[in-house]
Amino acid sequence: MFPHHREREQPIFSARAHVFQIDPTTKRNWIPASKHAVTVSFFYDANRNVYRIISVGGTKAIINCTVTPSMTFTKTSQKFGQWADSRANTVYGLGFATEQQLHQFSDKFKEVKDAARLAREKSQDKELANTALTIAAPQDLSDELQSPPVMCVNGPEDKLFRSQSADITLSSEKERIKKMLSEGSICEMNLEAELFTLQDSNSKLVAALHEANANVEQWKKQLAAYQEETERLRDQVAELEAHGGQGPSDMLKDELTQSLEELEALLKAKDEEIHILQSKKAEYHEMEHDRDEAIHRLREMEMRNSELERRIQNSEQNLNNSLEDRDRMDSEIQRAIEILDIKIFDLNDLRQSLVKLIDK
């Protein structure tokens, strides 16, 4: 079938995209129709004056959709768009590599839809003219009169299917944004808890640092006193060694040496304590840096939450607008159905009148 149509049809536009179809069960999830990007093309049949969207993956037709004036291509994201095909009872989705490709396909879709609308109007005008010229053929007239209602009824079905698809898309987008906002709030709470922890640790470190600074001054004074005492003891030891037997006994010398070693050990311990306090001071600066980073992250999260709230408001506004458009479309569809009922009734009366005229 496809080679025969390809002989009559001419490609007018092509693009590469990932093809998806809506899940027929849930009407919410997308099912990939191709494993990789494929060519999606618009074809025009000059003999039938029909436009079609065709995409082939290997030997299988992924998309075979006739474009009707009631179809609408909706851009749901920067690189994704969709449209509903009521004849195939499905919704097609296309994912493009760039935003520019999506805009080009959307513009071409609108152009082809307008061309299809003009072609349908010309076809209907031609059918009305043929109907006026072939009143003497009642069987042909009845066939032609019964075909327009079928064509017109398909239009409202496309609108209803498209409005339901738009509602599903808006609802899913709103749920996704609310989920992002809740995640942002959780992150903000975690950051606030981390900030409070850092502030508490910072206060404790500041108090410890002040206490350490006071202790350092006291220990420095004690160290200076110990150093003076050590020097004095060394001088005494040296003096005793110089005098030899005139000095104190060896026991006193040993005691002085032991006292000197104890003072040197104490001096070494104080030096280590000073080093530890200096390292704690460096850790305090690092904690201050972490606190500043946490404050910065908290501000960024607040800005992100504000942006998410703004996006939710915009989505709600778009949802309200879509609901209003759907209500308006429903009323238009109802009016169209009433008009079609009147037309069908008038056509039946005309047919019965023609049958009676022929019987006479």
Produce the secondary structure layout.
Layout: H1 2-8, E1 9-22, E2 30-32, E3 38-45, E4 50-57, E5 60-66, E6 74-75, E7 80-85, E8 90-95, H2 99-133, H3 138-243, H4 250-359
Spans of at least 5 consecutive residues whose pLDDT stays below 50 are 1-6, 135-162
Strands, total number: 8
Mean model confidence by pLDDT: 78
* Quaternary status: single chain
Number of helical segments? Answer: 4
Distance N to C terminus: 47 Å
| Secondary-structure element order, N to C | HEEEEEEEEHHH
- Alpha carbon gyration radius: 44 Å
Strand proportion: 15-25%
Q: Percent range for helical residues?
A: over 70%
The shape, in one word, is rod-shaped
Describe the protein.
It contains four helices and eight strands; from the N terminus they run H-E-E-E-E-E-E-E-E-H-H-H. With 360 residues, the protein is α+β, with helices and mostly antiparallel strands. Strands 1, 2, 3, 4, 5, 6, 7 and 8 form an eight-stranded antiparallel beta sheet that branches. A hairpin with a 2-residue loop joins strand 4 and strand 5. Helix 3 packs antiparallel against helix 4. It is rod-shaped, with a radius of gyration of 44 Å. The N terminus is likely disordered.
